[in-house]
Amino acid sequence: MIPLLKHIFRTGILTETVALAEGGPQREIDRLHDEILRILGRALTIREVDAGSCNGCELEIHALNNPYYNLEGRGIKFVASPRHADMLLVTGPVTKNMENALRIAYDCTPDPKLVVAVGDCGCDGGVFGENYASCGAIANVVGVDLRIPGCPPTPLALMQGILAAVSKRSP
Amino acid sequence: MFLADDFPIDFTLQPGVGAPVWRGNAPSGEDLKDFAAATHLAAGRLCAMWGSDERQRGGGYRLHCVFGLNRGHAWLSLDLSADDPVYPDLAGIFPAANRMQRATRDMVGIASDGGDQRPWLRHGAWPADWYPLRHDAVHEVGMGVGFPNLPSDYDFVQVGGEGAHEIPVGPIHAGIIEPGHFRFSVVGERVLRLEQRLGYQHKGVEKLFIGADIERGARLVGRISGDSTCAYAWAYADAVEAACGIEASSRALLLRALMLERERVANHLGDLGALGNDAAFAFGLTQFLRLKEDWLRLNAEVFGHRFMMDRIVPGGVAVNVEPAALAAIVEQCAVIGSEVKKLRTLYDEHAGLQDRFVTTGTIDAALARELSLTGIGARATGMILDGRAHRHDYTPPPPWAALGVRPVTDERGDVAARVAVRFGEISESLRLLREIAVGMPSGELRVAIAPRAGGSGLGVVEGWRGEVLVAVRFGDDGKLARVHPHDPSWQAWPALEHAVMKDIVPDFPLINKSFNLSYSGADL
Ligand code: SF4
């Protein structure tokens, strides 16, 4: 236990230490956090749905919860059920084999819901496009409020996209 | 030559600097089956299986099998007639053949003469008598046109008996994770049986390769499984270079190795954090994700992409690494190395973690061998199987041979062993990265490459998850006629089914994470 506490103590709170060390990107992260909270004024819950990605986009969505981006620490939480979600964060291309599951997840998300398409694949099908097994863009299957391009989009781009989506919706 | 001199198969060694591959044609299905049986007896593996449509070239169809033997890989092809493309069922010899045979039938319409005939990649999106990889398989593409996307039933194996019931999970899972379906048969909390149904990530990748040029192929192959983009890109580059008769420079090979090892470390860091988290040790997740983020940021600085996508290309590499960047890599290795060492002590001494890790999700070496398992899962049962490392009769390809890679093993076969192998591999990769960075020679980054009509090749790379294979064949027009990528997850998914048996349902997430298999890589 003692070494554990020591390690925690030594590491400190990264979301701040990096701000000093790196300036630029971390200030942007902080600004985005404040903006999201200002616009939203409450917690945001996100259900992530992989509708056919190569898993690259998921790696960056995972990174949102590392101590640098610390999304969960600011009240933006990934939830297990679409029924608990304000936003669907969807990666794709939507495979035909996932088309139905995505529609069900969409229908299960309470209104007013936000849908964000992540990655080049989610935006327009990316390198896979539409074919016998792929529906291509998320928007081909469910309504999309915002697109975050990139292959994969960086965590910063994802944060900016989430912010843009919530500010689009709020009055 | 491999097994005995009296096999009626002539093998020739593939040219180039990639992993050693011998090519041959089986005169008949029986010969293929005999070769498979002899390979099995010699403790070899079934590495990959796929089919191709050869009717435009005046043939019928062709079945391809890659076997792993001590000295290297044997790529054996079998010609099948156009009207009756059937071959002997190999699943009785190698259980790993089961899903590959079913996928081959779904994709090309050539079938095994027995065994499991349930569809694998085909759910309800296209008809049972339409095979996407046949050259005459055309259909309209677009929403609302083409084949109707029908709901599909799947014949899960039923477990009977008093108190037995089923828990269906997926395709959408609770976390930020790829989709797939798991059917647990349980009594109380104990898992009697797990049956996976995959294919949800199937997005027609193999068909997209047909008619593509080398560059488009490289972009596609780097997106088969995003976490293994370097491994796939390298295996593809090896295959294309073997097919076209060119060799990448030693500098390019070392830069590829630099990227592959950075990919390995990035994934291991993430997995070790997630494994701590799944055992209720959130501290571990935070620490490891912090290290991983530092790692990825240096990737972005040095290679211009956090995951180094599109940086390994046929002919060499598409990025130069200056001495200053190499120095930054060496420096980072030292920092990460000492941090990981401290975290390892914490993991090893944390009673709560070890209680969850030890004896959970166990498979033994005999089973691993039976399932043709490779990678972390195999080495965690004590098997010394690593394409980068010397072993009896096997010399790894450059640049590994000169680097003297030390394979990391652990005999326990449980989650704890798979954790320990990851820790060990991080320190070995850090050592390799330092060695590569310090000894980087000058040389050409990328040599020009022109497709060779009719050429073919196979690349094999030891990715972070296990053995990645990519087979390539060019058509007479110099475009890609067939590319088959193979993910180590094909062999490891069935190992996961075994590993959870007799454990309890709440341990499944932890056991699953300890393998961390690819859906997209195997669904294609
Ligand atoms: S956008 Fe890129 S990283 Fe994301 S799923 Fe598509 S290919 Fe993978």
Automatic annotation (TrEMBL), chain A:
UniProt entry tagged with the keyword Transit peptide: no
Pfam families attached to this UniProt entry: Oxidored_q6
Record-linked InterPro entries: Complex_I_20kDa-like, NADH_UbQ_OxRdtase-like_20kDa
Family membership: Belongs to the complex I 20 kDa subunit family.
Keyword Lipid metabolism found: no
GO MF annotation list: 4 iron, 4 sulfur cluster binding; metal ion binding
The protein's name in its UniProt record: Ni,Fe-hydrogenase III small subunit
Database matches in PANTHER family: FORMATE HYDROGENLYASE SUBUNIT 7-RELATED (PTHR42989:SF1), HYDROGENASE-4 COMPONENT I (PTHR42989)
Domain NADH:ubiquinone oxidoreductase-like 20kDa subunit: 54-164
Keywords in alphabetical order: 4Fe-4S, Iron, Iron-sulfur, Metal-binding
Lineage: Bacteria, Pseudomonadati, Pseudomonadota, Betaproteobacteria, Nitrosomonadales
Cofactor: [4Fe-4S] cluster
Species this chain originates from: Sulfurisoma sediminicola
TrEMBL record, chain B:
GO molecular function: NAD binding; NADH dehydrogenase (ubiquinone) activity; oxidoreductase activity, acting on NAD(P)H; quinone binding
Coiled-coil zones: none
Stretches assigned to the NADH:ubiquinone oxidoreductase 30kDa subunit domain: 41-137
InterPro entries: ComplexI_49kDa-like (IPR052197), NADH_Q_OxRdtase_suD (IPR001135), NADH_quin_OxRdtase_su_C/D-like (IPR037232), NADH_UbQ_OxRdtase_30kDa_su (IPR001268), NiFe-Hase_large (IPR029014)
Keywords, in A-Z order: NAD, Oxidoreductase
Every NADH-quinone oxidoreductase subunit D domain range: 288-447
UniProt entry tagged with the keyword Transport: no
Name of the protein in question: Ni,Fe-hydrogenase III large subunit
